[in-house]
Amino acid sequence: MSDPGPSATTSEPQTCEVCYLEKDARYKCPNCKIAYCSVKCYRGAKHRQCSEQFYKSRLDDHLNEGSEAPGIETFDERMKKYLDGDGEDVKGLDPEEADGELVDSDDEGEDEYLKKVLQDVADEYDVSEDELDRRLLKFNLGGDADALLESLTEEERKAFAGLAQQIHDDEAGLGKSCFRQK
């Protein structure tokens, strides 16, 4: 069946057989061959049964054509094929890539990085008490830690506590992002 289109067989203007108002009925129904002037007349009440039949037959033709074509796959079906090793059937997948090893670029050098961080942390906290006393004496801060704290004013103690917390946070990396920058 063909779509409703212009009539090429008549040379003189025809009156629309649906609305009878237009003298220029340029179209003919492909089903019943009635002359009409517009889509409004083609779909109108007087011609509805024929036009609906035409649309139904076109829809049936379209659906019948689709049944011969392979069915639409869902995402799950495509993934199952891919995981079962049928990668050549999956569109957009290069068969050479399907056999290759999967690469996770985020993990490159992760083991070495973690070993280095662990070693640095262990080295920092592996300092003996004698070494700490030696470093404090170097800055004329040696002696009993409690005596040093007692000699500070309340304001100096708060400032010291804030500084100690800041140093701890910096050394522990609490102020840094856990994500590496590229």
UniProtKB/TrEMBL annotation:
Task: Locate the region Disordered.
Answer: 85-109
Where is coiled-coil annotated?
Answer: none
Q: Which SUPFAM superfamilies match?
A: HIT/MYND zinc finger-like
- State where composition is biased (Acidic residues): 95-109
UniProt-listed PROSITE patterns: ZF_HIT
What are the Basic and acidic residues biased-composition ranges?
Answer: 85-94
The source's domain of life comes to Eukaryota
Write the record's keywords in alphabetical order, separated by commas.
Answer: Metal-binding, Zinc, Zinc-finger
InterPro entries associated with the record: Znf_HIT (IPR007529), ZNHIT2 (IPR039646)
Question: Mind listing the GO molecular function terms for this protein?
Answer: zinc ion binding
The protein here is known as: HIT-type domain-containing protein
Native organism: Mesorhabditis spiculigera
